[in-house]
Specification:
384 residues, alpha/beta, 3 domains, five-stranded parallel sheet, 36% helix, 12% strand, elongated
Length: 384
Amino acid sequence: MNDAGELPPLLLGLFRELRANGVAVGVRDYLDGLRALRLGHGAGSRQALRELALALWARSEAERRLIARWFDAIPEVPPTLLERVEGVVSTLEESVHAGTSGERSRRTTIPPAVPPPTASSPGKTGGAAGEARARISFAARHEGEGLPLPRLPLAPQIAEHYVLQPQAAISARNLAVLWRRFRRSTRSGAGAGQRSEIDLPATIRERCRRGLLARPVCRPPRSNCARLLVLADASTSMDPWRPFLATLAASLPLGRLASAELRYFANLPRRKLFADVELTQAEPLDDLLRENAGAALLIVSDAGSARGYLNHRRARQTIDFLAAAARRFAAIVWLNPMPAARWRATTAERIADAPAADGRPRLPMLPLDAASLLRAVDILRGQR
């Protein structure tokens, strides 16, 4: 510890590294370190400094590992080298304070005292030849900061452990906002109790015709009659996107649609669909398509692109299903969670490039991201 009441370079560098990595150490922790050093703790060895840092600044196992890696990454300096470094630093301090050195170089190299042994003299293994050598880099000096601390050219690896948690590609709130964008407004309800919105033009016309009105003319309010059927692939190749499928199921009731149903299939829609992601509650495909005739259809599947396969039979059966569904649904969109670059030479590319029958536009297959979801909703609304 120097006269200014500053931590020794090793602990000061560790303190700055902890701050840079988001560890909650502050002024109080810094002062605790100074007090502990004044009381004699951490003196005498590098291990004592390590134990002091762990006792003062480690509050979790991850922080203990970070502090341990810091001490392991910085090599111990031999006494002979330490004396030479202190001599260079003292010389630099004198030149800076005396003002005789002009602009100091940003990098100072300590030359080795004895050249290293060469291949022609393998037998010369004296103590001088085996001396440790180091290159110390100094940053630029700023007013009031004194000499900067030497730092290693490469930062130690201190963030190797990760905690992986499943995370949906799009949040449920953002999906709910997208579903509310999917609107087809109509006025329905002929009964007097359902007419709750004032029809201003009709009221004015009636006032002009009769001259006196007992009550204004009312009409039914607008309501969203948009209907949506979502078919999601629950096969093993879609396991990485299970969190998204769960978020999708949770967001549909928040979309304020007239009806929104979610059914699952494995690889491609066959004779039966399923009401649960475990594929145990089967329903006939024809009945479900007939009940949702006129609605919009959204399909979520990798279409074989996750494994990079081209299955001609699967592609042909999927194209046949889409041709049959096009006669029942107002609009169809396919969401593929794999990037578009991974569709090449797979079943997904064959399905996306298949021409549609009856002069209909080709099936839009879009990747799974926020911009593509917005475009998918616009297509389902009828805006291509």
